[in-house]
Amino acid sequence: MSSIFSRSPYIIEIDETGQVSSKVELYIWTSGSQPSDPQYTLSKKIPASDRTSTLYDVSPYIREYYSFDSFTGLTNVYNEATPTGHYVNVRIVRSFTNSTGEQGIDSTVYKAFNGYGLYEDGSNPDKGNVLLAEDTYTYKKLGGSDVIAQQQNHAGIITVRTGTSDVMRYTDLVTGATFTQALSDNSMINLDRCYTLHRERGNKVELLTGGSTVSWTAYFRPIEECKYTPVYIDYINAFGAWSRIFMYKTSKTSIKTTSKDFKLMNEPLNYDVLRGSKALFQVNGTETLKVNSGFVRESFFSQLKELMLSDRVLVNNRPASIKTSSLDMQTGLNDNTMSYGLDVEFNNDIINA
User: DSSP of 226-242, one letter per residue?
Assistant: First the structure.
């Protein structure tokens, strides 16, 4: 089963001998069985008798079916079904018409995700079965009265599209102890990034395709922050799945208010100097947050890049937008120590007006 990353074009081509027109039928569903009728039927005539190829970009028709309305994260869970709505099922039926009538070509089922390919990836890229880049990630190390089950202390999730007999292996970065989890066959699965007994020291996580072949590897390391309260940011990454990063150092909250004013007229016979000559109405405001990563690895920039390109962001479990629109990539050669700051705006007025 192929994958569609629908923030980029996904091109379906029909080019059959003798065709004069073509048709694509799209069946789209999030749960249950396939609908009996297609949601969309697209058709085209060939451009010319010597140019018979017809192309369809199906991505725009798929994107309206995602739903990321809720996110609770995971802790100590290693084989949980990905919520429906975080991806969609798509069946694409291709056909064409020649001099003898309409002819069927094929019918293909896809999994579609709210992700994208980069320009250099070309068209219809294959991004693999793990919806997270191979990289090193950090999470908040527990301390004091922290409770692992609290949202702000979750390490984050890994979303996997499984095959048959796939296994996820967790290896403690210090002791080398391993934990393996068999994954449900041919499913969409969410897993905690860190095995509970490895959380204090961190772990390497590997997907073993078919139970034996390592096809994906990432590292998850704890960061202890004793002075500041880390800000946690959940966002839909380049693969179309929830991902999490922490900004460990100082954060500053600000508000910006807006209002309109109108001129008042004091009553001449009942003049009140406390009344004023102007009044405000439609007073409201927005809240912003400045966050800082602390010292990071060079590869952290790629995670920030995905965050800044995300169209769904939660900051401390509140819907937000990343207002920073420009960021210079730092390197160990040029900058010695690397840290990044971001400006965040929460996506709601302060007063529920």
Answer: SSS--EEEEEE-TTSSE
